[in-house]
Amino acid sequence: MMPPPPSDPAAEEALVPVSALQHMLFCPRQCALIHIERVWAEDGATAEGHLLHARVDGGKPDRRAGVRTVRALTLRSFAHGLAGKADAVEFHGGTPYPVEYKRGRPKAHRADEVQLCAQALCLEEMFGVPVPAGALFYAQTNKRLVVAFDPDLRALTIRIAAETGAMFTAGRTPPPRAMPACRKCSLAAHCQPRKLERPPSVSRWLLRQIDDTVSTDLPRPNEAV
Questions:
Q1: How many domains does the chain fold into?
Q2: Which end of the chain, N or C, is surrounded by fewer C-beta atoms within 10 Å?
Q3: Number of Cβ atoms within 10 Å of the Cβ of 124
């Protein structure tokens, strides 16, 4: 049975969205733009992802072959400062097994695995039982990728959760850093990494203004002094 929520509303307000950990590991600036500055831009990929999650979250609980599946389950971990919603949680006996749905395919980085592991940390606190593994379902491959929540992944998830919480508390957006993945980011127009990563020097700008002023004030070749 889930523990009752704390009576302190501030504790609830301080919880970091589980989805923010994926953004944080992929790009801290993207995470801050979305969750601190509330900037969002839709593109084909994000729209497709929303439709996929809507289909999954809208499903009713079911039981097949002794496995009970609960969809859109609200998650909380006050120990790790996390809150969110699981696409689906399968209960194999009394053991929760989170399943996260993704529109693409498995990635080289561990952002999806961290998001899933964060769900497991919440489930362990909520139900008081170990959650050793879960799965990522990728629409492009139409296959599940089983993820074991080993000590390395747990340590990474806890560290990213702490760093994300600290960034939210500070309320500061990191400076831009251009990387190849920026080309596919729906927030590229708002972030402008290539333009803002190395902004023009203020001193150079002032020198150009002075040069323009001096050039304007100087007499032209055929003008009398």
A1: 1
A2: C
A3: 18
In Å, how far are 63, 75, 77 from 66, measured between CA atoms? 6, 23, 27
Residue 208 lies in a domain: no
* Packed helices 151-170 and 28-35: angle between N→C axes, nearest 10 degrees: 50
Q: Quick check: is 119 in a domain?
A: yes
- Is a pLDDT exceeding 90 seen at residue 114? yes
Question: Does some domain include residue 214?
Answer: no
Computed over its alpha carbons, how large is the radius of gyration of the chain? Answer: 24
- Least confident range of 52-66, 107-121, 151-165: 52-66
Token output for 62: 């079911």
Q: What CATH number does the domain containing 113 carry?
A: 3.90.320.10
Is 166 within a domain?
yes
**Contact status, residue 101 vs residue 52, Cβ threshold 8 Å:** yes
- Assessment of whether the complete model's pTM goes beyond 0.90: no
pLDDT at 1 over 50: no
Cα dihedral 197, 203, 205, 206, rounded to 10, equals 160
Give the domain extent around 93: 9-193
